[in-house]
Write a structure and sequence with these properties.
Blueprint lengths: L2 H23 L14 H18 L4 E5 L14 E5 L2 E9 L7 E3 L5 E4 L8 E9 L5 E9 L6 E2 L1 E4 L5 E2 L5 E5 L6 H6 L1 E5 L6 E6 L2 E5 L9 E7 L4 E3 L2 E3 L2 E8 L3 E6 L4 E6 L2 E7 L12 E4 L2 E9 L15 E10 L6 E5 L16 E4 L10 H7 L6 E5 L19 H6 L4
Parallel strand pairs: 8-17, 10-18, 19-27, 25-26
Antiparallel strand pairs: 1-2, 2-5, 3-6, 4-5, 6-7, 9-11, 11-14, 12-15, 13-14, 15-18, 16-17, 19-20, 20-21, 22-27, 23-24, 24-25
């Protein structure tokens, strides 16, 4: 055989062999071309076995953590909670970002957990939870969230205080620390009820003040409940409430005192009966006392009164008066009207009006004589009692000046409600 023929024969054999090898490598019929690896059928079987084994090892317990992971502006009250289905919780650890532990309580049935107290604002919390199913297989879940910041939340400072006993004229007054634009949503989150059954309606004096009262004075001896359900309520764009609180207070006896600026006398009535008549001195003709229904909002056994703080100044800018120990003082208006003891006025009570707008009663320096008219009135008055001034040459006090919404008609009052 020539070299040329030999080369052609080798090339043909090589090509044939190469074709066999290629066919063997791609063979899918399980024939004589088997390469020694697992067949597709056996691979599927092995995968199924792995899936089955994994399923047998996977816990059926399903853990849910709220707020969801990465949440911001979360509530500081009820947002944080861990629950589980098809299992029971065995461990829940909640910490602040810096590792401080937060105490919590696991439900008796082991299916839920909550922190024990209110959370802090502007704080990032982490929760790590473990549960086991009926076959003792563990499941794990982790979450992190951040609570609402002071910049993105609002609170309402309210009066009267929880557990207090007040007079029949005491409204519920709430002052919010940020302007409220969605007054309806906020008012719907506030409910005031009375054991007397009186209807209670709110009135917005401005975007930060809401007062609530019945049409007539509270019934003596009744119990009033204020329920704040403002948690998560959006009061303004991106600003949420955080309060969830119930407050109760008692209404005492019904005491209403009427000051007649013309006769210089005050008549004190309790439960409809006159119990005392007291000589007074009201505002002078140049500085008359407001007329109208006023509610005692603060009481001080002694306090300082400086005319400069309410606009009464001399040519040097100093207060026209500065008395550092005014006895038995009770506030009637935000603008500075008080009913108080007066030890410096002689022979004026029941005879002349000499003050800068306050109502004065005879008293002694140091507030130490309980027999003085001012001391008696102070000791027999509650925050929330009503003092009515009449026959003064001044105008009627503005309803928003102090807790004095009683000077507004019921129609005007209800017109200021957003609910």
């Amino acid at each position: 055989m020539t070299d040329s023929k030999r080369r052609k024969g080798l090339m043909a054999a090589s090509a044939l062999l190469g074709g066999v090898l290629v066919l063997s490598a791609c063979n899918d019929d399980g024939g004589s071309g088997d390469t020694g690896g697992p067949s597709p059928a056996s691979s599927k079987s092995q995968a199924a076995d792995v899936d089955k084994a994994a399923a047998e090892e996977t816990s059926e317990a399903q853990i849910a953590i709220s707020p969801k992971n990465g949440a911001t502006n979360a509530s500081i009250n009820n947002a944080a909670k861990v629950t589980v289905t098809k299992g029971k919780l065995t461990s829940v650890v909640m910490t602040t970002k810096d590792g401080k532990n937060v105490s919590g309580t696991l439900a008796a049935d082991g299916t839920s957990w909550q922190p024990d107290g209110q959370l802090e604002r502007s704080t990032t919390y982490r929760i790590s939870a473990t549960a086991k199913d009926a076959k003792n297989r563990e499941a794990h879940e982790n979450s992190s969230f951040t609570t609402v910041s002071p910049a993105n939340s609002f609170i309402g400072n309210f009066t009267p205080e929880d557990g207090s006993t007040v007079g029949v004229g005491m409204p519920v007054s709430i002052n919010f620390n940020k302007p409220i634009t969605d007054t309806k949503a906020v008012q719907n989150g506030i409910k005031v009820t009375s054991s007397s059954g009186q209807e209670v309606v709110g009135h917005w004096f401005n975007s930060q003040r809401l007062d609530l009262r019945p049409q007539e004075y509270w019934k003596a001896g009744s119990t009033v409940t204020l329920k704040l359900s403002l948690d998560g309520v959006e009061g303004a764009d991106g600003v949420y409430g955080v309060q969830q609180k119930t407050v109760t207070f008692k209404i005492g006896r019904s005491q209403v005192s009427t000051v007649d600026a013309k006769t210089h006398m005050m008549t004190v009535t309790r439960d409809g009966k006159t119990i005392r008549t007291i000589p007074i001195s009201a505002g002078s003709p140049d500085n008359p006392t407001y007329n109208g229904q006023m509610v005692i909002s603060e009481k001080y056994k002694e306090t300082r009164m400086n005319g400069a703080t309410v606009g009464f100044t001399d040519d040097d800018g100093k207060g026209e008066y500065d008395i550092k120990d005014v006895p038995h003082a009770m506030r009637l208006s935000t603008s500075g009207t008080f009913i108080h003891g007066n030890y410096w006025g002689k022979g004026i009570f029941g005879k002349a009006n000499t003050s800068h707008g306050c109502v004065g009663l005879a008293d002694v320096k140091g507030a130490g004589d309980a027999n003085q008219p001012a001391a008696w009135f102070y000791n027999n008055s509650l925050i929330g009692d009503v003092v009515i001034v009449k026959n003064s040459p001044d105008k009627t006090i503005q309803p928003s000046n102090g807790l004095n919404g009683w000077n507004m008609s019921w129609a005007d009052w209800t017109a200021g409600s957003a609910a």
